[in-house]
Amino acid sequence: MSTEQEQETQPQAGVTRYVVRTLMGLEPQVVSELEEYGAVEVELGRRSAAFGATKTVLYRYLQSTRFAVRVLRPIFEFKAKGPDALHATAVQLDWGRWVDPRRSMALDVTVNSEDFPHDQFAMFRLKDALSDHFKSFARGGSVSHLDINRTNPEQLIHLHIAGDQVTISLDLIGKEALFKRGYRAPRARAPLNEVLTAGLLGLAGWRPGETLVDPMCGSGTFAIEAGLWTAGVPIHAGRREWTLFGMPSFDADLWRTVGEEARKERIERAPILASDWNKHPVGDARESVRKAGLEHLVRVEVADFLEMRPPRDTEPGLVVLNPPYGQRVHADDLEHLYGGIGGALKHRWSGWRAALLFPKDLDAQHRIGLKPRVKHTVMNGPLTCTWAVYDLFKGKRADYLAGDERAGHGVEGSAAEGAATDPGSEEGETVRFRRPRVQVPKDED
Ligand SMILES: C[S@@+](CC[C@H](N)C(=O)[O-])C[C@H]1O[C@@H](n2cnc3c(N)ncnc32)[C@H](O)[C@@H]1O
Predict the structure, then answer these.
(1) Which residue has the least CA distance to atom 27 on ligand 1?
(2) Same domain, 407 and 273
(3) CA-to-CA distance for 138 and 93, rounded, in angstroms?
(4) Ligand 1 lined by 153 (C-beta under 6 Å)
(5) What is the C-alpha to C-alpha distance for residues 257 and 421, in angstroms, rounded to an integer?
(6) Domain match, 49 and 114 both
(7) Domain shared by 334 and 395, yes or no
(8) pLDDT value at residue 331
(9) What is the distance between the alpha carbons of residues 359 and 337, in angstroms, rounded to a whole number?
(10) Which has the minimum average pLDDT: 65-69, 134-138, 140-144, 160-164?
(11) Are 149 and 104 a contacting pair, CB within 8 Å?
(12) Whole-model pTM?
């Protein structure tokens, strides 16, 4: 982008446009978070949002964002019809202002254009243009060979083509996307993505201060994300290897000042409880809680959810469940497990809210037997999943809804239904749901 073009896209003094990438379903939370940090002219996109920010606002946002996966700085925008036209323009751009040819780099491409039938070819032509540029046009002498490193690049360049519109962006983060928070135990099996987890907490309406119970915690992602959120620490302030830090425009003093200004008040306690019936993930979760510096906020225990009662020493809040869904569990056992979960929620957890994550096409979901107040569709890796949120109440659903409406809390969504306990069921009474045949794993791996 020439200086003139850049000025056109920066209408406010000191404000630069950026693009944040996120996961499907989390876009509205990204927008609120951007606005909370002072971003301007925020525009919602598909798995993304564009925004304007001063350097201070950008640094605050980058140090603390929970819902962003990557943040990009668009550097060049132009039109090209086909790979050769792309090369012809790209070779003449002022790359030296943004890219250091002596540092390793990787290119990433997204194409939606009939002019560019092969994504990879468009990417190769851009790489050729970069290489030709630094051989012939570069200020301060030519560079004969670019260090392309796809696994561990110091600089990551994104090529985005829609029709004949080409946008080239520099990834401010680089190799380690923002879901890598640094607390994950290396042995953790099938953990949820950290960005997705924070987003799921937000979608279920959880906010710091509310009780959170994750009784099938695995490596503890829900509890740790909730703990970090409660602690209010700038979760990315300690990062050392972002592309941003090698950019000529990076202001190390400002970065440090922004980090120091972030919340200093130490929260001493939080009602966040995680448990699992398998002691191995419990060990991993405890290790991650320690790494994240959250031992004072998050408690982790060994317990079978189907035997568990709500904690008595806290207010009712949100129970989050990410149960196993198949690969290691037989279909019959899944039916029993999901039936057991529904029964336990219905009979023991009235007064709480619950949220369950399961694959959209999972047959066993019907065994839960509760009607969600609202359902969200999210991607858990390649798997389309439902995040179903339930209000667990005693008595008749009609009475609950009438009370809820009187209280001014309308029930959202077309799938809006609540969950009632059987009339007459009491705390401590014999629970009548069928116990699943899934056994507590012994000392498996
Ligand atoms: C898909 S994993 C949860 C992953 C977790 N959300 C994370 O990010 O690491 C499901 C977990 O449920 C646990 N589990 C299955 N049945 C259980 C039960 N009845 N009570 C407690 N935990 C159970 C398993 O041991 C497993 O760790």
Answers:
(1) 218
(2) yes
(3) 10
(4) no
(5) 53
(6) yes
(7) yes
(8) 66
(9) 15
(10) 140-144
(11) yes
(12) 0.86
